[in-house]
Amino acid sequence: MADVKREIERKYEATGDARLPDLTRVAGVAAVDHRGAIELDAVYYDTEDLRLAADSITLRRRTGGADAGWHLKFPVASGIRDEIGAPLSDTLPADLAGLVRSRVRDTALVPVVRLRSTRDVHVLNGPDGEPLAELGVDAVRAQRLHGGNRATAWTEIEVELADDGDPAFLDAVERRLCKAGIRPSASHSKLARALAETSPKKKTPPEKASAKKKTSPEKPSAKKKTSPEKRQREPGPPPRTAGDHVLAYVREQITEIVALDPAVRRGLPDSVHRMRVATRRLRSTFRTYRKVLDRTVTDPVGAELKWLAAELGVDRDQEVLDARLRTRLDALPRTLVLGPVRARLRIWSTARRSGSRRRTVAVLDGARHLALLETLHALLADPPLLPAAAGPPGKALTRAAHKNHERLAARIARALEHPPGPDRDLALHDARKAAKRARYAAEAARPALGKPARKSAKRLKAVQSVLGDHQDSVVARDALRTLAVQAHAAGESSFTWGLLHGQEEAAAAARERELPGVWAKACKAEIRSASGG
Q1: Is the pLDDT of residue 531 over 50?
Q2: I want to staple 102 with a disulfide (CB 3.0 to 4.6 A). Which of 2, 96, 261, 359 is the partner?
Q3: DSSP codes, 171-236
């Protein structure tokens, strides 16, 4: 099983003139324990077109030191990474392979760089002898293993915060280092620096370089050929056409799906929900902008996105329901909790969620999901644009947003025509789906239409929230009735379950009363016209 560690570190340039200062003068440091030098040998793996490096992800197999093994690092924030480790082995462990699968898909991982480092280790200890940070002076020798055979070398200083340490301590260390003339590194990782310094460069004959400089000093250099993967990540020119804007939103959602795949596998909070939302946004965009994107291409993709969202929902829906019921139960006075209510809720929830996480990971590991990822990549590489995509964004995006708003209006009106009860509940659930689609249409139009789209998306989100809470109440009432029946059959009191059921009925009724006012505000913010169309 892979181990996870939050790595908080900073890197500094170690020039020939700079020397380590007296680090006991850093606030909180009582002593510096010089551990001596260790030899580290790491081989970094990536695809031939460096997909992992493009997302600042590193995968290495390292020998030497106390943590020899496989290490996979995901960026969290500047200077912060999650390091997932696995024992040393000849082949990449399956757990780590799964975590990079959404990026590499079925493309082979190959050795790209070898880094051999001599690390001089210094441990900064506090007054009680507890380690505060580890400082290493690394003499690095880097060799390119794929795409050339160039080598480079440098020396850097790395300061890594101890587990559960205060990040502010690194600020104090940095101030002391800077006073000694040691500056922060321009590169965020050793691999990034090695790749940059060993990148193959085409040699230009001196006479041609001289002639070019004399005749066209201001002419921009020819564009380098880049892989489709890299082109999809690189920022292009500002979107101008309707197709540009729609594709920008599509690209954003696909990037989110790919990035959240490993987070879902790791069970990170809210990752399933966010991935599910991205699939819904993408599918909704395909349906909304059928004048821009060819539906003969996007409809099959949308069907696969619907499948993925449904599979992810097995775990997510139960998670939301559990949280809702526990919150309701915790809010009750103890005198109103009759019988083994919490134990029954826990057993019921465990039974429903048993194996759901394993099922989710199995879905992500399956051939169908891999095929979907390949399809999404191909769609970005060769987007199925229709003639309308070449037109200005204002008219096309406004028309699409207006059409979705009209659909939502019809469904809300239809729902409110029903008296309270199951028919209204179903109709409001249909309205909720339309609210999501209308909101996503406004979000996609926001960069082109500006404030009107931003305001509309905000108001539609409020409508979606009301309808979503109403639907959650409907689902909760069904679950509470089931729990009450089970309790009664076991000879337990069903009083508490009935009480919670009544609270959910009242909450749903309150949401139904709130809906007309929230909807009226959304209507006032409807996108009706756009400048620049």
Answers
A1: no
A2: 261
A3: HHHHHHHHHTT--B-SSSSHHHHHHHHT---PPPPHHHHHHHHHH-TTSPPPPPP--HHHHHHS--
Q: Token pair for residue 142? A: 């880097």
User: CA torsion, points 275, 276, 278, 284, in degrees to nearest 10?
Assistant: 170
50: confidence class by pLDDT, cuts 50, 70, 90? very high
CA torsion 361→366→369→374, rounded to 10°? 130
Mean pLDDT across 51-76: 95
The structure tokens listed for 106 are 């079925």
DSSP of 287-299: HHTTTTB-HHHHH
Give CA–CA dist 437/407, Å, rounded. 10
Measured CA to CA, the distance from residue 336 to residue 332 in angstroms comes to 6
- 8 A C-beta contact, residue 370 and residue 403: no
Which ranges of 267-366 would DSSP assign to H, the alpha helix? 271-288, 295-330, 341-353, 356-365
Phi, psi for residue 472 in degrees, rounded to 5: -60, -35
Phi, psi (degrees; rounded to nearest 5) at 457: -60, -40
Long-range contacts of 31-37 (CB under 8 A, 24+ apart): 31/125, 31/129, 32/122, 32/123, 32/124, 32/125, 33/122, 33/123, 33/125, 34/120, 34/121, 34/122, 35/121, 35/122, 35/123, 36/120, 36/121, 37/118, 37/119, 37/120, 37/121
CA 178 to each of CA 19, 20, 33, 184, 437: distance values in angstroms, whole numbers, following the listed order: 11, 10, 21, 8, 52
Cβ atoms of residues 78 and 61 within 8 Å = no
Give the pLDDT of residue 16: 66
Q: What mean pLDDT is predicted for residues 50-55?
A: 95
Partner residues linked to 44 by β-bridges: 60, 113
Q: Which token pair is 479?
A: 């679950």
Q: What is the Cα–Cα distance from 410 to 398, expressed in whole angstroms?
A: 18
Res. 278: pLDDT tops 90: yes
In this prediction, residue 224 has a pLDDT band, given cuts at 50, 70 and 90, of: very low
* Residue 429 confidence (pLDDT) above 50: yes
The conformational region for residue 327 under phi > 0 = left, psi -120 to 50 = alpha, else beta, is alpha
CB 133, CB 169: distance < 8 Å:
yes
Task: Using the structure block, give the residue that is written with the tokens 């996007």.
Answer: 298
| pTM recorded for the entire structure | 0.84
Nearest alpha-carbon partner for 292 in 231, 331, 248: 248
For the stretch 371-381, pLDDT in tens is 999 999 999 99
How far apart are alpha carbons 95 and 86 in whole angstroms?
A: 8
- Mean pLDDT of the chain, nearest integer: 90
Phi, psi of 331 (to 5 degrees): -80, -10
Q: Tokens 């139009």 map to which residue? A: 445
| Whole-number pLDDT of residue 2 | 66
**What DSSP designation does 532 have?**
T
The distance in angstroms from the start CA to the end CA of the chain is 55
Please give the torsion angle defined by the CA atoms of residues 349, 350, 352 and 353, in that order, rounded to the nearest 10 degrees: 110
